[in-house]
Amino acid sequence: MALNSLDVQNKTFNPQFRGFSKHEVDEFLDIVVRDYDEFAQTIKDQERELKALRERVKYFDDMKDSLNKSIVVAQDAADNLREQAKSEADTLKINSEKESAEIIANAGQKSSLIIEAAKKEAGNILNAASDDARKLVRDTDDLKRKIRLYHQRMTSIIENQLASIQSDDWAEIFRPTQDYSINPEEKLQMIIEEHLENAESTLVKTQAIQPLTDEEIEQANEKAEEPEVEAEPIESSENIEETEVPTEAKEEVAEVTETVADESPEHSEIDIPKADDSEIFPELEAKAPAETTELVEKDNQETIDLSELKN
Fold it and tell me: What's the predicted TM-score (pTM) here?
């Protein structure tokens, strides 16, 4: 049975001979009871504290277990995550190496195709440039030949025009007008005699020429119309007899004829040879102007062709 302070305090001892002093024993028992109560209270307090501490220790133990479990779970999760990341990294590395190898192979093939296409295109460009250069050389030579021909034609035309300008007909035109203050009848007689002499000489030359047929005249006219031929069409024997009379001479003859007609009517019926303007100066109706126009048009066309070649 557990001993408490009441048991100590109520404890009685039987007196015997030569026993302890009752007073001292009571005092001692009081001290024991007091100390016992103190120790008992201390023990109770310590038990309560121990219980609280044990509860805390249990709480911390439980927390420790939870933490350990959490740490284990986290460690497992970290291990799983590390393994998964490592696996994914290995897979990604393998896939990336495979893709990089495929990309390098495709890039090599594409670069080879691009190089081949570039070489082919460069060859085509060089061939086209060579063809263009040869064509340009041919066109240049052709253009030079045309320019040379144009220069020769222009030189020939200018020489012909210069020869036409320097002919004696112009000297006859620019010759000073003679004084016709003599008798109009005598002047008319002189003009008629002069033209009759010219007509007789022309008739003699005409008689020496054999008459041409109409076919020969047409052929001669066709040849005369060609650009390279600058000769005048051949006239028939009937037109050869016509006398070429300058315009000034016709005007003078007309004036003298009017004067003579007024003074002496018997001379009014004299036939004066007529001459067309085209027969006075046949050089002015040469085909050089037409050829000049054609050459100028050709030169313009060649200039356009040359500008297109340069472009």
Answer: 0.27
Side-chain half-sphere CA neighbours of 134 within 13 A: 5
Q: Measuring CA to CA, how many Å separate 188 from each of 74, 280, 302?
A: 151, 21, 58
Structure tokens of 202?
């022309």
- Work out the angle at residue 95's Cα, subtended by the Cα atoms of residues 89 and 97, and round it to the nearest 5 degrees: 100
Return d(Cα 140, Cα 158) in angstroms, integer: 26
Task: Please provide the size of the chain in residues.
Answer: 311
Distance CA 306, CA 295 (A): 16
- The sign of the torsion formed by the CA atoms of 43, 45, 46, 51 equals positive
Q: What angle do CA 60, 64, 68 make, to 5 degrees?
A: 170
DSSP-based three-state secondary structure for 8: helix
Please report, as a single letter, which amino acid is at residue 293: T
Residue pair 268/298 in contact by the 8 Å Cβ criterion: no
What is the per-residue DSSP string for 54-70?
HHHHHHHHHHHHHHHHH
Residue 200, SS3 per DSSP: helix
CA 129, 130, 134, 140 dihedral sign is positive
Q: What is the DSSP letter of 311?
A: -
Closest CA relative to residue 222, chosen from 212, 211, 233: 233
What are the tens digits of pLDDT across the range 35-92? 888 888 999 999 999 999 999 898 888 888 888 888 888 888 888 888 888 899 999 9
By the 10 Å C-beta count (0-12 exposed, 13-18 middle, 19+ buried), 256 is classed as buried
C-alpha 70/C-alpha 65 separation (Å) is 8
Q: Residue 221 contacts by C-beta under 8 Å, 6 or more apart in sequence?
A: 233, 234
Beta strands in the chain (DSSP E): none
| Integer Rg of the chain from CA | 75
Tens-digit pLDDT profile for residues 165-194: 877 777 777 776 655 455 667 777 777 887
